[in-house]
Amino acid sequence: MHYRHHYHAGNFADVFKHLLLIGLIQALNRKDKPWFFLDTHAGAGSYDLRHDIAAKTAEWRDGIGRLTGLGSSDPVLAEYLTLAADPARYPGSPLIAAALARPGDRLALCEKVVEVAETLERTLRALPRGENKLADWAVHHRDGYEAASLLPPKEKRGLMLIDPPFERSDEYDAIAELIASAQSRFAQGQYVAWYPVKNRFEADRFVRRVGRDSARPVLDIRFDNGEPAEGQMHVCGMLVVNPPFRLLESLQAAFDEMRRHLALGPGAAVTSQWLKTEDQCLKS
């Protein structure tokens, strides 16, 4: 039995992850030069939130469901609300990247579960005319932890998204090792990893390790939705290696709205910390 993201699609963690991903890609799009997007655990591409699978957990109701009908002038949040407007086609990270890609940009999408990879390929091929602007995408039927072998890209600019299901006991270590391997091949690349905070000690140890080992700046951002229920994941993080200039400022308005609408308790908050700053990189 393999992990099925359909159960969790559109939940608070997805909203957080996808807003940050949009912010990162919008930053790449500020320059004309093409970029390369590498998704290590791509999934099926899109998810029908009306399906019985999504209804079993209904996690989306406390995620994208709380943003339905909302309008925004903020470029990050407005883009997300447009892309996620259809509950029959809630976009995963590959579709978000495809929607924001320009002619010349390139996507490499890794998915080791064959039937899920095949679904992703069908989903990308079926994008309506006008959405599928890029011809250069490829789905790789492989373990995402082997994705460093696809680096460095010919484009010289790139972003790797690491978003595993956290079914392995050593997932934090595997992510840290992948980032180190990828940086050794493509030092100027940007790397972003999603992770759950179920054990704060383990999560803190993980981000400190990446911050220690990286030669580039490392920024950790976490979202706590304030959920008071025992046993429920209510905190997750995004670790960004070599973030673009003023990333936090570009996301501030979107994150403020996310926290306000998705809060399930008074403890809801978005927090950030630098594990390694630009100045520390210059001194090392």
Automatic annotation (TrEMBL):
Keyword flag Methyltransferase: yes
Enzyme kind, highest EC tier: transferase
Assembly notes: Monomer.
The organism's taxonomic lineage, starting at the top: Bacteria, Pseudomonadati, Pseudomonadota, Gammaproteobacteria, Nevskiales
Family: Belongs to the RlmJ family.
rRNA processing recorded as keyword: yes
EC number per UniProt: 2.1.1.266
Pfam families (alphabetical): RsmJ
Any GO BP: rRNA base methylation
Binding annotation for S-adenosyl-L-methionine: 18, 41, 93, 111, 143-144, 163
Catalysed reactions, semicolon-separated: adenosine(2030) in 23S rRNA + S-adenosyl-L-methionine = N(6)-methyladenosine(2030) in 23S rRNA + S-adenosyl-L-homocysteine + H(+)
Cross-referenced InterPro entries: RlmJ, SAM-dependent_MTases_sf
Site features described as Interaction with substrate rRNA, chain residue numbers: 3
Matches recorded under SUPFAM superfamilies: S-adenosyl-L-methionine-dependent methyltransferases
UniProt keyword terms in alphabetical order: Methyltransferase, RNA-binding, rRNA processing, S-adenosyl-L-methionine, Transferase
GO molecular function: 23S rRNA (adenine(2030)-N(6))-methyltransferase activity; RNA binding
Record PANTHER family: RIBOSOMAL RNA LARGE SUBUNIT METHYLTRANSFERASE J
Gene Ontology annotations for the cellular component aspect, listed alphabetically: cytosol
Species: Hydrocarboniphaga effusa AP103
Function: Specifically methylates the adenine in position 2030 of 23S rRNA.
Protein's UniProt name: Ribosomal RNA large subunit methyltransferase J
Active-site annotation: 163
